[in-house]
Records
---
Amino acid sequence: MKVVKFGGTSLASGKQIQKVLSIVISDPKRKIVVVSAPGKRFADDTKVTDLLIACARKKLRGEDATDWLEAVVERFASIAMDLEMSNDIVKEIRADLEERLRGYKGDPERFLDHMKAAGEDNNAKLIAAYFQERGIEARYVSPKEAGLIVTDEPGNARVLPESYKRLYSLREQSGIIIFPGFFGFSKNGDVVTFSRGGSDITGSILANGVKAELYENFTDVDAVYAVNPTFVSHPTEIQELTYREMRELSYAGFSVFHDEALIPAFRAGIPVNIKNTNNPSAPGTKIVNERETKNGPVVGIASDEGFCSIYIQKYLMNKEIGFGRKLLQILEDFGLSYEHIPSGIDDVTVILRENQLNQELEQAILHQIKEKLDADEVKIQHRLALIMLVGEGMRRNIGTTARAASALAKAGVNIEMVNQGSSEVSMMFAVKEEVERRAVQALYEEFFVSVPV
Amino acid sequence: MKVVKFGGTSLASGKQIQKVLSIVISDPKRKIVVVSAPGKRFADDTKVTDLLIACARKKLRGEDATDWLEAVVERFASIAMDLEMSNDIVKEIRADLEERLRGYKGDPERFLDHMKAAGEDNNAKLIAAYFQERGIEARYVSPKEAGLIVTDEPGNARVLPESYKRLYSLREQSGIIIFPGFFGFSKNGDVVTFSRGGSDITGSILANGVKAELYENFTDVDAVYAVNPTFVSHPTEIQELTYREMRELSYAGFSVFHDEALIPAFRAGIPVNIKNTNNPSAPGTKIVNERETKNGPVVGIASDEGFCSIYIQKYLMNKEIGFGRKLLQILEDFGLSYEHIPSGIDDVTVILRENQLNQELEQAILHQIKEKLDADEVKIQHRLALIMLVGEGMRRNIGTTARAASALAKAGVNIEMVNQGSSEVSMMFAVKEEVERRAVQALYEEFFVSVPV
């Protein structure tokens, strides 16, 4: 049995939903279909979920939200028309939306969650109806009926462990199950949504619950690329990567989806296949527990900018037990999270995301560090980029560091920082933002183009 | 004016003290001479300070310590005889030692300090007398007379800031001052010693106090070597290095002396010249505030073994604010100091000196980390060596990392860890202990032998 999830662009129009239908029926193992709300049809389009949020906010302000409600109905109506479906489904959706809009507003977050969930919920109903009209045995199953119980944290729900056992009984149902993504129900029976992109989470939970042999995640790209395609044109597609590699690659903001969504599938050891709705015959990228490392030490390169480093120097720092802990306490008191803290004998550097700071906060932090830790010198460097080289077994491959550092040197890139050896599957370089592109290109050239290893 | 300090081996015999005299009088700027206690004359010899400690401990146990006292007197008598001095000085030393031995024993640490200081103190008196007998204007000055006031921490005294002003008046004295190293006086007038090797500290304090143009530190090697001579025969001698470089080199236990002793001279910007008593015409190694970097990026390579790494893995670790701080708190609670903490997205590694642990403690720490931090995996790797590449401006030299990593790869050395970017003047590699020698040799070959840069 396979769990198949389709993202917003795969369901944005009738034409796309026709593709979805043929994909699902082309493999009898595709029994559980998790759907998102209709996404963008073109670059400037608005996602149905965003229309619903605008609608809910307007209503919460006490204003008339009919315009937004009509916009949502219009999107579904257009899909139904494309699919030559009867108007009944549109009426049903309108009625559902109007009822939600009349709902209790005393708890705004809960009201918002209720409205947001309408995109996936109604899309699932529409798609189930469409499958039925095409003579396919299919039915809509709600998370409530299936027993997908979550914590009562609106907008940030987490699945409760007892759900898995209940979801297992979905295996016994005949026909295809169309399941709305993005939300579950609290123990009290309230709709609670996952964090944004939460349909991936639903698919992953269901794959775990029914112990699927595969979780297929259909999106709008053929595969996960080995490098950001805005830096390198037509980069290598990754055929297979491990969960750990996926996670490291997503570290620097380079991800086709929510990597944390994978946790439930990961825990159950279920492989994930990222595929393209618009090119379903492409093999896509498979995310697995273990893989053979036959294509050299590096599987992918990720990078992101917007980091800064705070350098702290104090003579005899390394003799001072508790110095590092006190430094981290200061960061924690300011609510800051950090990426790395490379340290030397008399100095330590903290790398963190720049967007956590503004000028005032920055001054306050530098001042506190200087005062509380009695530091000799504290200085900040802005506009750094972090580059991650990721690959299983990289650590055991003598010479990977040398190849990477030499490639950067040849490209005239100065390495501000190297962090290697914590993770067994990655190596981090910090460079100035202005050379990020050049650095990534040089590393790609070294590990994916020049010499096959 | 120069402050000149002679170490124990430079003063171990009459013959050595004759060399000291010629060195001092060969430069009229050498006005202040700081002396250690007589050290070893040959490999199996015992230092006078160690004889004094044995003597004091025996006395404190309530036993007769005459044998040890005689051994100390004997060392001084042998020096006096070598120098053809009258027996008066030996009588004076014996009387001093007997008086110290009769001293108050209610505070054993203070008694011990009093005894330990006798080596330097009597040696200074002997040397002053010898200089006088040779017709040189010289006199013994005690730390009390000079105003070298320290904190009342027996065996670990720190200079009090007011001392510097008092010491400045030593400039006004005519002739050569012979000053005992290793101890000062508390505000109450008690003898208090510095930590072991403390004559270097005395010299450094005096250099600061009198605002010397140079602090000459005479020892028994021609220079600081660029690499451990047990790994590479006849290594390059370092002509000049900065305080920062010296400090980084001494990090991994590779040091001709107490690098912390330099702090007072360092604060006053006074250069230090490490020279050889047995080869005073050799230029030695100069430690300065700034230097021209004309000989390539690397000035020296230090290494030490006996490290271990604790690897901690936890899914979503980087989302958990406070994780790092809690980890460091656990280490602090166990009284452990760490060297480095490289971190990844879901993992962090702590590098620390292995000699802080035993099997029981190790199990307790691993257990606490697993429990308190709810880690998915905790494991320890033993027998690591750290190698430091040190050099000013290394960071701005594109390609240093590449050269180092390539040299290690060519030597078949797997890099377990790289830490670069905290300090601007060093780069750290961790390797398995069994390849330390090979790794150091490869790096030395790359930066000091093969290609001049």
Note: Chain B touches chain A through 61 residues (CB under 8 Å).
---
Amino acid sequence: MSKKQEPKILSVTDLSTSEAKWVSLKKVEFVDQTGTPRSWEIAVRKTTSKSGVDAVAMGNIFVHPSKPPATMLVIQYRPPIGKYTIEWPAGLIDEHETPEEAAIREMKEETGYKGKILDSSPAVASDPGLTNATLKLVMMEVQLKEEDDIMPDQKLDEGELIERVMVPLSELYDRLMKYAAQDKYMIAGKLFYFAAGVHFAKNSGYI
Amino acid sequence: MSKKQEPKILSVTDLSTSEAKWVSLKKVEFVDQTGTPRSWEIAVRKTTSKSGVDAVAMGNIFVHPSKPPATMLVIQYRPPIGKYTIEWPAGLIDEHETPEEAAIREMKEETGYKGKILDSSPAVASDPGLTNATLKLVMMEVQLKEEDDIMPDQKLDEGELIERVMVPLSELYDRLMKYAAQDKYMIAGKLFYFAAGVHFAKNSGYI
């Protein structure tokens, strides 16, 4: 990436639903369990795949013959937040793809590596008070050879500027906390929860 | 809760940004790292607390003298998804509250229990490709007495219908997978990621 400058937000303006290309607002009218009519406002992505799931995120493990297992995180400027986020590679599922096909494709595009799928989660709700968006967490393994120690080329879409960082799995939680302590970064919630789960299992004494 | 019927969605209609009360659409104009002007469409909550964080979720541990440590999950109908979601208790932070005050309040309202805060996470991004919404994961402990085996009253807001279920921490991942296998339920992504992190730490052999 030819990085000339820090990204800068120029303006944030109201957008009408009819002008929006990617996201719309909807009003859901429903009857609740007691028979009471209610309504709820939601944000809806205009892109949806035929699979019924919007997105995939790749929980990835890099296995190297002589180094500890590690995971590749991606760092990108996220205009909704106005900061760089730390996330696992992720992307929207194309219309005619399965979630697992999207996971292989997006992993290759964002990290440069071909991963092997270990496990694909049920569809889960991204932020169920706000949106109908769903995703699958696809766990992937990348087997490295002894000589693999460089970052292969990414195949990013036009306008995508994604930095990669490799973190030993045993250091994931601590590394996220260090990023979070810097004002220019914010951790993506789902990755943080995974790391918090690992940290809890290892350190809490409860489990 | 007087549950007479299953909730039912009657209609989903376009909502204009000017009519919406809780959510709006915004267009962010920004300049990226290469100096290229770009734009991004985002969903924004109209409610924001002075703390700069939108919401809290309570990762809770119930400790009992003679039972294994457990966590209380909440099940509620979520109109954006059209299903019942399985989540940790959570809520929006009121305007003049700290995140930690909101965590204590919401925990009491949704579970009926007063929790003690063990840890409060950095603000993390709820769904950073779609929205500016942020939250903190507040880990809480509730110390039960030998005789505590019933569910105390909740203090729900009008219209809130939330069921509670207590799950031993060691069974969290398997129990979530059982819910996910039923069409009427969907797991909230962040809770799933935490459980997946615990499961990964315990079973993957990588860490």
Note: The mean pLDDT of chain A is 92.
---
Amino acid sequence: MRKLGTVHLVGAGPGDPDLLTLKAARLIETADAVAYDRLVSDAVMEMVPAGAEQVFVGKESGCHHCSQDRINTILLELARRHGTVVRLKGGDPFVFGRGGEEAEFLARHGVEVRVTPGITSAAACGAIAGVPLTHRGLATGVRFVTGHAKGDAPLDLNWKSLADPDTTLVVYMGLATLPRLSAHLIGHGLPSDTPVLAVQNGTTPRERRLLTTLGEAAVSLALARFRPPTLLIIGRVAALADAPELVAEAEAAAPDAAPPAVALAHA
Amino acid sequence: MRKLGTVHLVGAGPGDPDLLTLKAARLIETADAVAYDRLVSDAVMEMVPAGAEQVFVGKESGCHHCSQDRINTILLELARRHGTVVRLKGGDPFVFGRGGEEAEFLARHGVEVRVTPGITSAAACGAIAGVPLTHRGLATGVRFVTGHAKGDAPLDLNWKSLADPDTTLVVYMGLATLPRLSAHLIGHGLPSDTPVLAVQNGTTPRERRLLTTLGEAAVSLALARFRPPTLLIIGRVAALADAPELVAEAEAAAPDAAPPAVALAHA
């Protein structure tokens, strides 16, 4: 049997190719085949060599036409035909990227797997907005959860544990379930005036930001027409995004933003 | 008054310079001045241009000879004398890096501050050990806390919230307080057989790893002579570090490791 190639699970970071690691950039530029999904930015994909095989394995929101089983099979197939396969994942492969499942499947089939970390969206969005994820007196720690749920399925999270005012809560893919998410958190004791920073398409040319509160976030973000992918940073530290030297202007010029974001936030 | 320079708070990542972002590498290579602490690896510091001013602002464990106030003042002073000042921080500047305090201080003094994220130790250690921080059926989310406490001060953490078996708990700087940390977590309901992966000097040539359990971690790591900086990944996902394709060999050859780590882990 022919020797199988190596599959690299590579973090593509938040979108700006400048935030790839040196290692990730080198792997992308020398890949024989690249499998990618919709969270990998066009700017990153432009770095893939012309001769490399490119396979889109994206799951569209609400329409899972490319199941995880199918992705696993595609990766195994690529490893049979190529020496260096790069599986590009938005952000970090091991933070809500299901990289662990792909690694387990491939390893079980005798494929060598290597993991290259990436800048996860929480770190990128904190950096651009000037919001430290931990901060003396404001947040002793930070936690990441996903707001993703299938259809109307309940969000299966430990709300009592999550409603901790001393911890920054970062929610990935939480826009669709935000009304339920904020209701649960407030119901379990997190103050409704807890600051919330929303960042859509962070670090890309289409980036938008809005500072709101837990009680108002669902309505504010709906009115401001925020769309996935949007990251939510919930907690006292989010208020620091107001520091004028670090905070971005409201993205009034964003193509699908109706009124300026700041006007909404303080309406 | 002369125009002040720009201070870039730059994540130096876990140690391996290959895990710097492209942006961080460029900033380091073009800096006029670099302030760095002991968590920034020698390999990263070798990238600093020969002509750049280098200032060590490290806080040694247990001996805070360089206070945060002093660091702030040094950064301001550097911004008065240089155009591009790079403040290098191990990992990510906004995850237990006190970057928020430095940014606030500098902004208050009229200095332009930019933040470049870095690969935080949790992501790096997860990647090298093959441990996904989130994983279907094992962890719905991940949280980062610090075990650092001054002297015998109590660890001021919300233990009830932390003892959540469905969340991966990553502890930065937790070696010294591990006996108290594990006792609190077990006391609040986290099973004592919860897997714990310890990684010392992750991604550097002196990297060491040990897989143990919450109940045995304090003793196992003491016997194996683990030293700071050591990261702890606590939770069901840590058990995946056993997957032979991804897990590292026990670092029996490490200079200060007495018996092989694996023998200890299963003793």
Note: The CA atoms of residues 100 and 153 of chain B lie 23 Å apart.
---
Amino acid sequence: MERVVMKFGGSSVATIDKIKQVAQLVVQRKQEVKDLVVVVSAMGKSTNHLIELAGELSNEPSECEMDLLMATGEMVSSALLAIYLNAIGSKACSLTGFQVGLKTSGAHMQGKIENAGSEKLDQCLAEGAIAVVTGFQGIDEAGEITTLGRGGSDTSAVALAAVLNARCEIYTDVAGIYTADPRIRQQAYKLDHVTYEETMEMANLGAKVLEPRSVEMANRYHVPLYVALNTGDIIGTQILSEDERMEKTTLTNVSKIDEVLLVNLKAGDNKDLNITECFLRLAHAHINIDIISHTVDHEGNRLTSFTSTTGSKTKIERILKELAADYTFTEDVSKVSIIGSAMRNQTGIAARAFDVFYAQDIPFYSVSTSEISISYVVDTAASNQIVNALADEFGL
Amino acid sequence: MERVVMKFGGSSVATIDKIKQVAQLVVQRKQEVKDLVVVVSAMGKSTNHLIELAGELSNEPSECEMDLLMATGEMVSSALLAIYLNAIGSKACSLTGFQVGLKTSGAHMQGKIENAGSEKLDQCLAEGAIAVVTGFQGIDEAGEITTLGRGGSDTSAVALAAVLNARCEIYTDVAGIYTADPRIRQQAYKLDHVTYEETMEMANLGAKVLEPRSVEMANRYHVPLYVALNTGDIIGTQILSEDERMEKTTLTNVSKIDEVLLVNLKAGDNKDLNITECFLRLAHAHINIDIISHTVDHEGNRLTSFTSTTGSKTKIERILKELAADYTFTEDVSKVSIIGSAMRNQTGIAARAFDVFYAQDIPFYSVSTSEISISYVVDTAASNQIVNALADEFGL
């Protein structure tokens, strides 16, 4: 292995002892690879503390200053890790976002990576030192320090791996990507391989493993991505492209998202609800809507339903009232999804899934399909039962 | 007033409430001046906490990493102050050492300022915003973040004032520069004016007001320097060059330094001690030696004495033993100094001071004079008495 970028999140470097543990893993990896870059997040909840301090000074702190404030968290953890690596005899240098040329564009606190790489980083690696890089931060065209928003450190790591032509290893609190949430399904098992597309679909459909942004970037730049436990002693999950996957599985994952709100609209001939107008207004109010279904009943009424989150209920209700819509809410529902790129080639998966619902006598309100997933809206009370039944059927 | 650089130390921004107080003073000053730069240190003891963390990881943390680690303290305080200034309606931007182009040379953790100023700083001021700059830090030629060592934030402020052609105002816990330490002499009073030279001499001779480095730089670049209380409601002390001072005073200050070690060496004809060799070895061991005096006694013995600090006693003893020197130590002594550039032109000051010692019946072991100061080595037990007596004589 020539080059590797390892990434450790906030909980992996939360204390001095954890930093020492991470260092052991890093030193071990350095013996196996030529060039090693380590990307770290801020220690535990240290960034939250800084946000609280800012909150005491302003209700709406200026984002440019928040970026500088928050970026200090990663500087502390990267400096400390480098200090310890040097102390135990492994040459290391800490490098900030701007020192590794991590150029961003876009708004403060949600910068998008435009470019990465610098002479300083190359020089550090050329000297055989481990480059310990601050995650989550970059610098924009105007020379302002920026932060990358949610999942920023994963994205920093993938971006550096892309420019260095390196493998990217994300170390976290879980041992890899599972077929289902082990808290819901005891028999869930870790996948050895999964595709970029499936990982992105999982992230969008409730499996909290990797931020879709970083996976998308890894896919675009063909960065081999690997997720594993931050102790390093269990083999994790390799994320690769469809054509790299040797073993063909049927499906890879069953996920669920709770706190879904199902909105049912009824429009007859007389009281004509303009559905387009309704969706435009919801979009304008930044309300995400998801599974949309539409039918016409026996009396000729047009029935439309869509899902959103329970958190958006008040806003949605206000808009529907303004439009004098005839609506009902179905609450305490969940979205259960099965995911697998094998769906593209294999037929009958939808039929088998429908059979499971029939056999379990669990009704679903709504269904939507993508190229590599099928999602069902069901009562939350029945959601764990159906997750297990679907996992049984597809061996997940 | 066109341009002003205000500097606030760590204790002035130690808490959220203190940051708010500083902001009030800054906003008030901004109404009086066109361009305003504010340089801040890290909040209270926050840097010490970071140093402790590093200490848990390494006995000798790499200095390059320590610089990055310590530099975060000032980033936090400058971001927080800028957040609050914006919150109360005063446009402000926070800028780091590298963003204001504070270029340094020399070793890590003790960088020397080579240059300062950047487009970003000019732009911020041109927009009428208050530039809130991190003190104590810069960037070196290799693009490494550096810190400036002791008194670094004062020096940052003076360097920025020099390039901006601005007045530099240092706000601290004391109301200005006093004729003597008020804890020793109740009648000590604040000086309205004092010269750069006197201030440097005072700093070297025990008055802990400003680091000599920043005063030296202010002197070199003709930066008007002002020291005042961080609440801003008492007029402080203006530091200026000799020819700018309107009122002519005799002396400006009486200071003392405790924990002085007096070393007495005796070299006869037989056991020839090479004094030069001795001083070279002490210098090699990084031991500062100060007042040196030399006489020959009635029997032809060469008597040499010098002062150092009690903290260096063990090292000094080791070296003297290696040289088989005939030595004694006089401990519990202090160095009392009178300072004033008026010494240059006024005669009789030394005589008046000697008279004070005679009248008080206090002996001194050693004396040294510079162009603008006279220092006496006396027993610590008598030091406060002589400080007061000298202050009485010279009206300090």
Note: Residues 3-173 of chain A form a domain with the Carbamate kinase fold (CATH 3.40.1160.10).
